[in-house]
């Protein structure tokens, strides 16, 4: 049965009524139904809250000392198959897939003209692929549901293999590439909806991720074909001319210029200040409230006009991007809140930056990408979540080419395009970050780690770090970056938060809630316990 939520920011309009399946009689009804499908993505169990709350602290770059969501959020060691978000995220993606199938059924029943039918089915396929791409990365193989379920259906589907899930993703995205409009031909009323560029960009990302999967599972003889497809599809997005890197990286995060950012943003989750609903189920984003501190004034929609600082930057991570290649990188100051003045005119300075005695010393920096002083409530902010930008497509091309041919001219050109934009700053060019040359690139393994680091800064708090950790290899081994970071690198750091001793920084460089010993089970989330309770054919992931 098709069940739709009633509101979504797609053309800055709030839709109060859902379109039930038996009410779909026309093309207009189909359009409202499609809007309802997108609503799942920015709903509370989706990218409005649960999936981002869950993923950010379980990587290694951000942490949280907040004790909510049954005390489990931000505490990786306490996750289990009964943790609420483990189930809500799973259910929300499958609810989206269910509603996609309802739309496909109605398109076939209404039999509109061939071009419109192909476009709507392609858009449905894009959303289904998007859901399965997230599901397979989080949970591994999951049941493949490819048609509507009714009373005569077999409700108890076993888990498909990872290979089978990716085969469907590739097929769905290929159809979307063929039949979706380009960004510049997309009707204005469909702004924020999927395009050919979004489909091809995600196809490149899915091919790359699957190739990584093959390498990490002793199947490297199969991976080259998928690296080639990733490189080539990324290259076609770049050469299409449909997107461009915004000249000023900082302008991407200016909420007043947000719509203009979609010259670079290929796919994003929209949010809006919704005066009709100031609850958790409204149209707004929570990001400013939880990523900004209470001492940063006029930055959120909270009654105090400042955040609660539930999520903070790991001290080691901010320190890493203040030295070496990234010293004086413009992206650092536009990503991290590290020096600021509070409402009492007191200066705050975060580790490891120099300070004077009168400053308030902060053990952790914060994220400043999401600021909305005009927000209406804790969850009432305008800030979109950019899930795929052109800069990532450049880095996908660089990574795939490097895996095929090492640090070739093609790989370096794609990598350096991202650094060249960073050097432009806000119109006053800088010298850093410098281009990587054939000499400084080193080996294939060296450039792979440089790409990992570049992604680490370029996409902080953009829903990438955890997936990068679990998919990328550490040098030329079967060890993931997740395993390397949590079994080797992070244990080498002094534990605990920084502190000031004798007017200088001392102490540790890690906040403990998500820096725990490596355990392979954390490469996947557990299959939710209540899903296993109702479906006897489901099996649990290793270690859970």
Write the layout of secondary structure elements.
Blueprint: H1 27-41, H2 50-55, E1 62-64, H3 84-110, H4 114-139, H5 162-179, H6 196-216, H7 220-239, E2 265-269, H8 287-291, E3 311-313, H9 315-320, H10 330-335, E4 336-337, E5 339-341, E6 347-350, E7 360-362, E8 366-367, E9 385-389, H11 390-405, H12 409-424, H13 438-441, H14 444-458, H15 465-471, H16 481-489, E10 496-501, E11 504-510, H17 529-534
Helix pairs in contact: 1-3, 3-4, 4-5, 5-6, 6-7, 6-11, 7-11, 11-12, 11-14, 15-16
Describe the structure.
Among the domains are: 1-179 and 517-544, Serine Threonine Protein Phosphatase 5, Tetratricopeptide repeat; 271-383, no CATH class. The chain contains 17 helices and 11 strands. Strand 5 and strand 6 form a beta hairpin. With 544 residues, the protein is mainly α. The longest helix is centred in the first third of the chain and has 27 residues, at 84-110. It has a 3-stranded mixed β-sheet with strand order 5-6-7, with no helix packed on it. Strands 1-3 form a two-stranded antiparallel ribbon. Helix 1 packs antiparallel against helix 3 and helix 4 runs antiparallel to helix 5 (162-179).
Kindly provide the name of the CATH class of one domain.
Mainly Alpha
Number of DSSP helical runs: 17
Task: Compute the CA-based radius of gyration.
Answer: 23 Å
Placed side by side, the strands forming the largest sheet appear as 5-6-7
Q: How much helicity do the residues have?
A: 40-55%
Give the topology string: H per helix, E per strand. Answer: HHEHHHHHEHEHHEEEEEEHHHHHHEEH
Per DSSP, what share of the residues sits in E-state strands of 2 or more residues?
Answer: 5-15%
Assign an overall shape. Answer: globular
CATH fold title of one domain: Serine Threonine Protein Phosphatase 5, Tetratricopeptide repeat
User: Overall pLDDT, averaged?
Assistant: 92
Instruction: Find the structural class using helix and strand composition.
Output: mainly alpha
CATH architecture of one domain: Alpha Horseshoe
Low-pLDDT parts are 1-19
What is the tally of beta strands? 11
The major beta sheet can be summarized as: 3 strands, mixed
Report how far apart the termini are.
32 Å
